[in-house]
Amino acid sequence: MIALYDRTANALNTSADTILPTLARFVFAATLLFYFWNSGLTKFDLNPFSPGLNGYAQIFPKAMEAVGYDASQLSMFHWAVVVAGTFAEFILPLLIVIGLFTRFAAFGMIGFVVVQSLTDLYGHGGIDQPTTLGAWFDGLPTGTILDQRAFWMVVLVTLVLKGAGPLSVDRLLINRR
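The line above is the sequence of DoxX-like protein; the predicted structure tokens follow.
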């Protein structure tokens, strides 16, 4: 029985470098790709270098409130962050899905999700909303920040540690070197 278990475990370990990153990229594409792209689309009107009111309000809610929702009163820093964040919502998920610079893109998405979560908690008041914040080990997997985003992180950390897997542009580039 132990020998069978060992053979099975060894076979699974051998296939993990193929299955895990490919599965992580598939799950990301199936669950988060369009979430981030749709979010990015709400941040500008027609010109991606000209963020709309919604882009500023989503990323800098307290600053927008302080200036009476007049984005023209915000600084060049605010503009640069909104534009960079919007481009990140399109480019980083695309890189993950096609498997190009996957580790870099997944690491960037981890940073993006951390900033997004802090903005949701402190900028939009989610810290005061138990259903938004959630709580680990409470038996309810529905909290947006602690519960759901923990799963996002597992997918992204898998990609940082394992890379894109065999069905990726990264692998094609590695094989060409």
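Note on the example: The chain has a mean pLDDT of 93. Residues 40-86 form one domain.
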